[in-house]
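the two lines:
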Amino acid sequence: MPELTRRKFLLLSAKLAALTGLGSTAIPKIAEALDQLAAGAAPVIWLQGQSCSGCSVSLLNSDQPDPVTILTSYISLRFHSTLSTATGDVSMKVLNDSIDKGDYFLAVEGSIPAGMPEACVIGNEKLTEQVIRAAKNAKAVLAVGTCATSGGIPAAENNPTGAVGVTEYLKKQGISKPVISIPGCPAHPDWLVGTLVHVLKFGIPELDAMGRPKMFFGRLIHDQCQRFADYERENFAKTFSEDGCLFKLGCLGPITYSDCSSRLWNSGTNYCIKAGAPCIGCTSPDFASKQSFPFYRKSEQSKDREAKA
Amino acid sequence: MAVKVNIDPITRIEGHLAVSIEVEDQKIINAHSKGEMFRGFEAILRGRDPLDAQQITQRICGVCPVSHGIASILAQDEAYGITPPENGRLVRNLILGANYIQSHIIHFYHLSALDFVDIAAITQYQGKDPGLMELKAWVENQIASKVLYPAAPFLPRYEGRYVEDTELNILAIRHYLDGLEMRALSQKMAAVFAGKLPHVPTLVPGGVTEKVTAHKIAAYGSMLKKLQQFIDHKYLPDVAGVAAAFPEYFKIGKGCGNYLAYGVFPESDDGSKNYLPGGVLIDGKLTDFSKEKIAEDVKHSFYKSDSGLKPADGSTEPNPGKSGAYSWLKAPRYDGKVVEVGPLSRILVSYVKGDNPDVKKLVDGLLAKLNATPEHLFSTLGRHAARAIECKLVADRCSEWITRLTPDKPAFRDFKIPKDAAGAGLTEAPRGALGHWIEVKDHKIENYQCVVPTTWNCSPRDDQANPGPVEQALVGTPISDTKNPIEATRVVRSFDPCIACAVH
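prediction for all of em together
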């Protein structure tokens, strides 16, 4: 395993500080965080905001490494609402003691109800306050899934809770912490585990302008799509379950950054476009946000047919 | 004097639930169930393209997205006047069946078992199983080290009585590890036809987008076989083992004693017959289920909408500061009655109907093994037993459905979205009866309402102040130590609550 030198750490930290808009004063702190995390199983606190737990379920679908290896070899999962044996007061004591001690990595799944703090409460504390408390003492923050990275469906048009992603929320609250964004609805277990392991063992991976690891989100789905040749030949599917490129059904593969088309899902079994379903752009920051931008173009067909009739 | 205890958060469930109990003479005399997270899916859906619904509503819940997808496309099938071809119906059943298996396995081993099984027993392990030896070494190292909270997330925990038989503990811990692999395998199996899990892209009105091929049938079948072996030789015996160690839980946590099932897994293309039938058991009497008898009260919920509305006319306007409210869940009632939903309701309805010999055989067999009677099913352990039995029934039925698929025949029938339409999609999630109601106006969603399993089970009091099923089930539960109210959490978890679903 290649050793990560102090110098390299500092370089990475500088890069991260630049990417996340932090000043150079943050650099030694980030380097220290990375040093400690690289030393062994890193404490992780996992908070669920306005979430469906889908990213947690997806994490459990990781097969190499499997969940037990992740829990026993890479991280020390202090608090996770779905997995902790501790409950009630016992679980809150673990959470609070862990926050007070610091030196952990904070994972946030789900959005933050910035406009209606009562819409998410854990252990009699509003999440809007808890996440600030937890982020302040964290070494770094991992935003897991599109709800956490940019608000996702809870933040879509017409939403009643003023939901936002954790990156935006912390920034507005004046908390400067490095935030790594792992979008996806849900996040692919490889994206999550791959990022986590990279941070723990080799430092922060190369990130794009939105804080996403380039190794997973650097290319368009379209570029490696199995149906790319159909697109080139203008062989388009006219309805669901047809052969051909799904572009005219509304497929967002051409504007969505992720490696789904080469990585596939559920241990290489399948994924949306391969299974005949147009990409709905679930890793994009504006996923599902606008009513005027529906997932499919099927309704247009229905309206056209009506107009012709 | 009653002691008030707030169990907040209830972990090892899906989502944000708190339960407050009042304990007097070592017994719960009153309970309140509080859902603590709200997103507003119904408001978000309004004005959107109707076809967004099956994708958006799946994001209500990452544990049972398939059920929301199915409810939504059933509602749309009805609204658009289409029925899927046989392949489409069967593939939907196979995707849903696979997700039942994953959900029931994760519920027993990873959410509930640690209330009964002594995880610390791993330190007494003397055998040669490499996985267990590794886990033992890890726990010992953690305890010897100076880390804050060693062996997290498995420790700490409520103190109380756990299984005392080391062999049973070790076996259950081994199966906790195997169960993690098995639940991932059932998601992989679903993905053969689902595209991916969680959140399935292939479910559409008219059927599914994925095609049926001989290879996919074989792939699904080979994974199913491994899951059936796990269910038969590990899951069912482990539930029996826990039941034998805690027989008192056949008498704890009964609750309202009324049971509702909509029915699930259509066996005919017109959807008229379900493998697990619908029905209502009120005061022990079985009647047919009618969706017209569902209404939702909101007097004690954080909404300013009118109370007592039927789902098709439902409204969800938040009011977080509402006086007298204590939960984000509404309080659905059937014909004004408090009813429980879930695997126990489905199994009881099917058992009483008596039209499925497999159900009767499995239920009677397990009860005989445990020296229990059918009345014992109305309990904490009854819910676990019914869930395990259902897991076997569904897995075995999936192995029949795959033989009925016809490769290269369509699994999708094309459709047109009318300008104005309405439909209801009634199905069953692993946690119980699930309904979606859609109204389309001018090609857009005019109204969308979901009544979800945990909305029934974890509901707050209704307008008449009747407590919800979990609130009722907690009353009478013995609590030996109010600092470690493990008995209460056993009762709550037996319902397999999902709060992201319940509030949406």
